[in-house]
Amino acid sequence: MTTSQKLFNQLQSVLSGQPWYGPSVYSIVDNISFEAAYEKPAGSIHNIAAIILHMTGWTEEVMDRMNGMDAQLPVRGDWPEPGLPDEQKWKWIVEDIKLVNVNLAGFIQNFPEEKWNEPVTRKGDETEAGETYEYQVAGLIQHHIYHSAQIALLNRMING
Predict the structure, then answer these.
(1) Which InterPro entries match (predicted)?
(2) Long-range contact pairs involving 97-104 (C-beta distance under 8 Å, separation at least 24)
């Protein structure tokens, strides 16, 4: 199995498949009401909408890196502010995380196999301390898992 196939399969499992650890990202996100998405339980730093915007931004950043751009913080910012509760905006946030991951899946499938082990660069032409493109995508998949668990826990705190 190629690196592209392996990473593509892992991404699909985490997003919409049946990962061994529990519910997929989309099965969690699709069960969040817009009211819950904007609520911030006591003690929490971010609400669900902010976490999903954060996930979307980092997915875009990894794709930019795969496209040859220097590593940096996401264009949207690390933690974009979701603003006031808005049902239509919530639908767009959910659609956006799904669309950006469709794009990522395409990037993974079409990424040259020989480039997976090349180091990612950042401004100033320095490498990301041995972080390869494979490492970046695998890390993003782990990032999706981590934050989907946060979302599930926040939703449980809000809705019981």
Answers:
(1) DinB-like (IPR024775), DinB/YfiT-like (IPR034660)
(2) 97/25, 97/29, 97/52, 97/55, 97/56, 97/59, 98/26, 100/56, 100/59, 100/60, 100/63, 101/11, 101/15, 101/59, 103/63, 104/11, 104/59, 104/62, 104/63, 104/137, 104/140
